[in-house]
Amino acid sequence: MKKGSFYKWANRFVTSILMILLVSVAGMVLSTKLTGGEPEVFGYQLKTVLSGSMEPSIQTGSIIAVKSIGEEEKATFQTGDVITFTEENRLVTHRISDVISTDSGVHYTTKGDNNHAPDSNPVLAENIVAEYNGFTIPYVGYFLHFAQSPNGSILFMIIPGVLMLGYSLFTIWSTLRQVEEKHKNKTLDVK
């Protein structure tokens, strides 16, 4: 492979990667800001785990993918299922330890795997927002939590942009240098 063709291939590859990175991060940040919620990938919401209540099955600092559920699915969970629900204006992901059917509807008793006792309040079916199916990426949650903060949003929008700008300037400088060398070689050939 010639040096010039390798350089062109590498140039296109790096430009494509930087462009994909920039568009992905911008899309994720904009999507999160516009919907006012968590980022969603292929129908799954990514949630950051900030407590150790579900250890060792879900580590603190992990991200988990949870599938949003419809109203009709909220009363179909069984003991052992892991659900994400709202409790006092925060999201909690715990395992169902008991299902209680009453005249007013279905209530779930939940418990974190690492907790010694069940949660004090039963979970109403209408408070369930998603179901956890086992997809976890350890430690990425710390990064995602920071990326969703105002400082993180600014940082992750600026860094890819600066990288693209720097790489563009490098490419322009390199091209100008090559043109100068060709011009210099032509001038030497003419003399």
Task: Describe the protein's topology.
Blueprint: H1 3-35, E1 40-41, E2 44-48, E3 63-68, E4 82-87, E5 90-102, E6 105-111, E7 123-124, E8 128-137, H2 140-147, H3 150-190
Helix pairs in contact: 1-3
Mean pLDDT: 81
Kindly state the number of beta strands: 8
What does the overall shape look like? rod-shaped
Strand content: 25-35%
Helix content: 40-55%
Instruction: Return the string of H and E elements.
Output: HEEEEEEEEHH
Class derived from helix and strand content: alpha+beta
Note the total helix count. 3
Structure description:
This protein has 191 residues and is an alpha+beta fold. It has helices at 3-35, 140-147, 150-190; strands spanning 40-41, 44-48, 63-68, 82-87, 90-102, 105-111, 123-124, 128-137. The two termini are 32 Å apart. The model has no long low-confidence stretch (mean pLDDT 81).
Short summary:
The protein has 191 residues and is of the alpha+beta class. It has 3 helices and 8 strands; from the N terminus they run H-E-E-E-E-E-E-E-E-H-H. The chain has helices at 3-35, 140-147, 150-190; strands at 40-41, 44-48, 63-68, 82-87, 90-102, 105-111, 123-124, 128-137.
